């Protein structure tokens, strides 16, 4: 998500650049909403940022206030109707809302106002509906946000555009990231910006100011930025998703004061100290396994090299719901570099094993290319519990680690050995002292989870 207010400037192009930098956070749909002449204009469609926004579209999106979104679906549908920002015509200009996260009490929330959740397009659509109802009875949008978000459970970082202002709010746990940046200099400020990850600020020349705190709402107008604690924080420590460090965020992002790449490299170093094995080459599974492989090689003294070439034009969600398709898609995405593999004892570092199907296909591919031994090292502990806070994960019965011991997993995947980083080492690598949600690894869910879990499961 992105939000920009820069008086006197058209900001759609900057929003485009920022969304492009956040493409890894969602590839299903992209959208923007701008405000000009007392009117909100929303453009959104299925597809990547570069497909949705042609130059002519961006030129037509005039205005100095903008919010933007790229979608990766969790509980909602993956079709056009769920694309964001969501628009409602309540109040004088209406408002547009973009949401990252996943809400866990949607059925009860919908019932509380006499609607069926199944009649809503997504959890974000439901929040927009609840806000619109408050605004229609005379509340300002800020007041409506305070009233509605206090009743919402689960994970939400949101940006909301209304006449002449952009609001950005984070849930009381801080599950999903959101940071604040400044355009221009301290002496000559040109505006303010919010984004899910700091590289989105970098690409438009904004300066990182700070992370938005759990429960905080930042409001930006042409006069400047104000902040208030909209919701009581859920505890002393924030609960940013630990998987942002492991897999989700860009390596050049700063989260909780740490560059993600540095934490991934340290995960590899600690993994090497934790479980050594004789080998000729350490390689990472592109992209998120590579920094950890670099750290593993450094700590073990075993040379680092490239064993797989990734097709750069294939996105993260090029993973089909069908099992055999998923296996085939590994071949489209990764191809072995025979010269580095043939006759070699390999240490292969990846960030996670979820279902195990892509990992199994990968190990098979390395063996076909002549690898003598394949030792898998994983820079997250076994993934045993589904996420309800914004990472799309399969149901428990499809999570390999939930149903198998490590030696059974090793056998299924076909590796010579398999080791996972311990939770203590993962936390050390991120230099954590109590923060982060690690429910997917521990089963300890900090916020309530849905009572009825969809039988359909995920598309991931
Ligand atoms: P598998 O062996 O089938 O469980 O797939 C593991 C691979 O999926 C790893 O390389 C991860 O980087 C990647 N991965 C982990 N979580 C996700 C996710 N939520 N969406 C897409 N890919 C993921």
Structure description:
With 460 residues, this protein is α+β, with helices and mostly antiparallel strands. The chain folds into two domains: 2-238, 4-Layer Sandwich (Glutamine Phosphoribosylpyrophosphate, subunit 1, domain 1); 251-442, 3-Layer(aba) Sandwich (Rossmann fold). The protein is built from 17 helices and 21 strands. The protein has helices spanning 12-21, 49-52, 55-60, 106-112, 123-136, 141-149, 199-203, 242-248, 260-274, 290-300, 323-333, 338-341, 357-368, 400-403, 406-413, 423-430, 439-442; strands spanning 2-5, 29-36, 39-46, 65-71, 86-88, 95-103, 154-162, 165-170, 179-184, 189-195, 207-211, 216-221, 224-229, 254-255, 258-259, 281-284, 308-310, 334-336, 345-350, 373-378, 417-420. Strands 3-2-4-1-10-9-11 form a seven-stranded antiparallel β-sheet. A six-stranded antiparallel β-sheet has the order 5-6-7-8-12-13. Strands 16-19-20-21 form a four-stranded parallel β-sheet, sandwiched between helices. Helix 5 (123-136) packs across helix 6 (141-149), helix 9 packs across helix 10 (290-300) and helix 9 packs antiparallel against helix 16 (423-430). It binds adenosine monophosphate (AMP). Adenosine monophosphate binds at residues 247, 285, 288, 316, 319, 350-359, 391-392, 460.
